[in-house]
Amino acid sequence: MSTAQAGFSTRQIHAGSIVDAESRARVTPIYQTSGYVFDSFDEGAERFAGTSPLRAYSRTDNPTNVVAAKRIADLEGGVDGVLVGSGQAAIAMTVFSLASAGDHLLTTQLLYEGTREMLRGSLLRQGVTSTALDEHATEADWLAAVRPNTKAIYTESIPNPVGGVTDLDLLARVAKRAGVPLVVDNTVATPYLCRPFEFGADIIIHSTSKWLAGHGSVIGGAVIDGGSFDWAANAERFPQFTAPGPHGRPSAVAKCGRAAYAGLLRSSTIIEYGPTMPPTSSFLLLHGIETLSLRMQRHISNAHAVADALSRHPAVARVHHADLAGSPYRALADRFTPLGAGSIVTIELHGGRAAARTFLDSLDLVTQMTHIGDVRTLAIHMASTIHGKLTDQEREAVGISDSLVRISVGLEDVSDIIADLTQALAKTEGLA
Ligand SMILES: Cc1ncc(COP(=O)(O)O)c(C=O)c1O
């Protein structure tokens, strides 16, 4: 069935699905195979040349993975997508396909710490530099920061972990004027809450380990091509998209047209680096995606109730969630995430690190764990874990205070979540 005109909940169940010709299985099977039979000598060569529509090898082309990639691409409004083994691999593959030694990236300052570590670690060692601009930077500041060797503007729609919402309009304008793609990590928002292609993004990244899968049992990543960036018009900056391959093989633009970005990822970056998602993982991911809209509605209503209860609690010094009435991100949330600004609620406690320790060690229903977007409510102290390698000044610059606790609000009965958080907060009294 064509789902082109269907609503979000229909597409999250049906988009991209296939029915196996022989078994007629309704649920997309796990195609647990490394490779695919070549019917002849010549046909094998055609598959390697990419001139046959049939598959060659599961590193880049496994049917279960393709269904999940197509489904996410459809929900995002993209033209094509690829899956990889983790969100981190999705970020790495995206950067590797755009930038090499001597190149530069422009990023927002508030990013998932794993991304910042990659920018300051491996990427820097490989000669890719980056400049981060904070949320007060104006369009003129961004344009002034663009260099001839800048290859992308990189951001997160809802930055992890301190909430907020990014001004995608502003970044899309800058990226357009600079002639570089706007790359948006849309993990925390999911396509249910925000579709960055509608605001001018060119490439979307997901850690599918989080809300897309939702059940906390599988790691994965996705890169989605919006089909909007004109690689041919910017061929000088991005020759890899228009240069013909060996033996006269067509360039990514000549072969894939609007989907040239996904084409290059598949035919070069991913096949060369090999961060493949196992098909068992994409099978589990598909099962999560089927209920995304329903889960996100509940995640949002639970997060709103938790944020509201915690902002009235005397042991809590500050609550970060862009949907709160006093949030400085409220107007951006209304524009970019009108259905809700995600289900991470970050709190700062009276009583510093000691209060955070007592609070976390007193939780019962809520799990102390590093992860977000799970059906279970999870909490973690950021300064001693994910941001543990940063200096005090570096932590302060990205808003990670000593008492900051990130709560990924799950799908339990919200009264039970609030009761557990409240009893743990009561134990911190006297520590302020
Ligand atoms: C916003 C964001 N992007 C990417 C990642 C990396 O994803 P993964 O853990 O699947 O490698 C994370 C992980 O927490 C994340 O929060």
* CATH architecture designation of the largest domain: 3-Layer(aba) Sandwich
CATH fold category name of the largest domain: Aspartate Aminotransferase, domain 2
CATH superfamily of the largest domain: Type I PLP-dependent aspartate aminotransferase-like (Major domain)
The figure for the number of domains is 2
Number of strands: 12
Q: How do the strands line up in the largest sheet?
A: 1-7-6-5-4-2-3
Shape: globular
On the 0 to 100 scale, the average pLDDT is 96
Cofactor: pyridoxal 5'-phosphate
Family: Belongs to the trans-sulfuration enzymes family.
Pfam families: Cys_Met_Meta_PP (PF01053)
GO molecular function, one term: cysteine synthase activity
What does it look like?
This protein folds into two domains: 8-30 and 62-288, Type I PLP-dependent aspartate aminotransferase-like (Major domain) (Aspartate Aminotransferase, domain 2), CATH 3.40.640.10; 292-426, Aspartate Aminotransferase, domain 1 (Alpha-Beta Complex), CATH 3.90.1150.10. The strands form two sheets. A seven-stranded mixed sheet has the order 1-7-6-5-4-2-3, with helices on both faces. A five-stranded mixed sheet has the order 8-9-12-11-10, with helices on one face. It has helices at 8-14, 41-49, 63-76, 87-98, 113-120, 122-125, 139-145, 168-178, 190-193, 252-256, 260-273, 279-289, 292-311, 330-336, 352-361, 392-397, 414-426, and strands at residues 80-84, 104-108, 129-133, 150-156, 182-185, 203-207, 221-225, 316-320, 344-349, 367-368, 378-381, 404-408. It is α/β, with parallel strands linked by helices and 432 residues long. α9 (190-193) links the parallel β5 (182-185) and β6. The protein has 17 helices and twelve strands. The model has no long low-confidence stretch (mean pLDDT 96). α1 packs antiparallel against α3 (63-76) and α15 crosses α17. The structure holds pyridoxal-5'-phosphate. Pyridoxal-5'-phosphate binds next to α4. Residues 86-88, 112, 114, 156, 160, 185, 187-188, 207, 209, 219, 221, 372 line the site of pyridoxal-5'-phosphate.
